[in-house]
Amino acid sequence: MRIFSKWLLSYIAASILVFMTGWFYYQTFFRVSFQDKMKQDVIEMVRLKAPDLIKGLLRSPTAVTFEEFDIMNWLSSDKRIASLVFLNYNGSVRWHKYAPYMTLEFDEYEKKIGTTLQTVRTAYSTGEPAIADLTGSLCEISIPFKANNNNTVIGILSLQVSTETADKMIGESMMRYTYATVAMLLLIGLLMALFQNHVVVAPIAAMKESVENISMKTMDLRPSGRRDELGALSLALAQFVDKVRKEFHSVQEREARRAQSEQLWWQVVLGAAVSKRSRAMVVDEDNNVLYANFEINRGPSPNGKVHLLDVIDSQQQDVLRLIGLAMETPQQVVEGEVMFNGGKAAVRVIEVQTQDNLKRTMITMEPRA
After folding, report:
1. Cβ neighbours for 238, distance < 8 A, ≥ 6 positions apart
2. pTM surpassing 0.85?
3. CA atoms within 13 A on the CB side of 185
4. Which CATH number is 3-170 given?
5. pLDDT by residue (tens digit) across 319-344?
6. Domain boundaries along the sequence of the chain
């Protein structure tokens, strides 16, 4: 897998992790905190009107005053408040938007609405606001009112607050967060992709192309000249190629000297062991002619070497058969009489092995009178 593909997959995984972290934070902290803040805001809103409500309770313990009536209507107009009931100190309904419920006793009121207002009992017993989550998106808040300099509860306001509006606001905020996060991640990803392509991918591709275009003759690789890690890598690679080039040329020179020395050695050996009338040559394991005591008319191949079949063509099957037998039985002389260049010749072939474990085949052909 390419570097850019790996980076892209890693970036996508990191982006998903960031998004999921934000969603988890929304579900775990932000949503709960926002709802708690909304509940506290409702309580504070009621507390602002608490002095007027306490005055009305003290002035008229059983019947709601006009000022209280206005406050109830004002509270009912708040979209967060689904319903509310104002109770007297004796538990009777002091105010409700549904007129037949007014003046009902607390127990009778609970039967009418078909639910138990547990927070009312809690607020009355503790003297502090009580909050309880109901089914769906509702929560119940009961706020007690106390007479001045007296801990006696003289009235309770019970509200059912809807978190639907809050959830809608949170959902809208989450959508804005989603759009903003996606846009930001795309922008950052695009900038990082351009940066990585310019700083990492393109230089590596250029380095790869330079390595692929190295000539075996020159073995030349120029460093990029960058002053970063890729530049250091390019310089190290250029130095390595230079060492390989020097070693390669050194091996070529040693091989050339060895071949020249071996050719001279075979010239001396064949000059001493073979008569001047005889034709002799030595071929290597690839059947390339190393030395011949006669002139070869055919030119060398592109690699500068002359192959055995350039001297003894495929029509001279007897000679090739003897050479094949000699290769199958190393260190043994194979002899035979063949027709060569229009006349009979005694052929002797032997395959030997040098100290360097190199195989050499010596072929001598002595014309018959």
Report:
1. 221, 222, 223
2. no
3. 17
4. 3.30.450.20
5. 888 888 888 888 888 988 887 767 78
6. 3-170, 217-273, 274-367
